[in-house]
Write a structure and sequence with these properties.
Layout (H helix, E strand, L loop, with lengths): L18 H18 L17 E3 L1 H4 L11 E4 L2 E4 L4 H4 L14 H6 L23 H17 L1 E6 L6
Parallel strand pairs: 1-4
Antiparallel strand pairs: 2-3, 3-4
The chain binds protoporphyrin IX containing FE.
């Protein structure tokens, strides 16, 4: 006869394979899977188009007015600025849309965005701005500084026939 202090027979040892253990094991395996499963490849943001410094004649600059998904460029004192980030100023319907795709120098010097501030003959010589008075030249310098701080120069304005 077995005495009370002797260990129970092997068959009576509780098996670890119980329903609750199976559930816990499944959960554990699932959590490990979640942890290790490869993350979805991240879609990288598209790089902006490269900015290439180039020369623009007035007719070449003209289409850069924000229409037809074009960027917005304008020229100040011979420098062509990419003002696309200021599209609400210069883009279609903006208060200064007249400057888009044009030489804005005279308009900025005069503080006017009237049509007659723009060079009408795109195929002719560039506006020499030689009739501007000191105050207008100073205003133009101020605008140039502001544009240099805020926007990227993407090119140089040259008259037709000079490239
Ligand atoms: C009724 C008169 C005008 C009002 C109320 C007005 C208003 C404004 C305002 C609120 C800004 C934004 C300023 C900022 O972001 O710091 C601005 C910017 C500007 N304004 Fe005017 N403006 C007026 C006349 C003019 C005129 C006559 C010109 C023509 C040269 C002009 C050219 C500009 C330019 C070039 C900018 C800079 C936009 C940029 O940061 O790219 N504004 N104006």
């Amino acid at each position: 006869m077995a005495d009370a202090s002797s260990p129970p027979p092997a068959a009576e040892v509780a098996s670890p394979v119980t329903p609750i253990n199976l559930i816990l094991l499944t959960l554990f395996v699932f959590l490990v899977y979640l942890r290790l499963k490869p993350a979805k490849p991240q879609a990288l943001p598209r790089a902006p188009p490269p900015t290439v410094f180039r020369t623009f004649t007035p007719p070449e600059l003209f289409p850069y007015n924000g229409l037809n998904e074009m960027p917005v460029y304008l020229a100040v004192k011979g420098q062509v600025f990419d003002v696309t980030s200021g599209k609400n100023f210069y883009g279609p319907g903006g208060p200064y849309a007249n400057f888009a795709g044009r030489d804005a120098s005279r308009g900025l010097a005069h503080g006017s965005f009237d049509e007659d501030m723009l060079t009408s003959d795109l195929d002719g010589p560039l506006d020499p701005l030689d009739d501007l008075n000191d105050e207008q030249l100073e205003a133009l310098r101020g605008w140039e500084e502001r544009f240099l701080e805020k926007y990227l120069v993407v090119g140089k304005l040259v008259p037709v026939g000079a490239k």
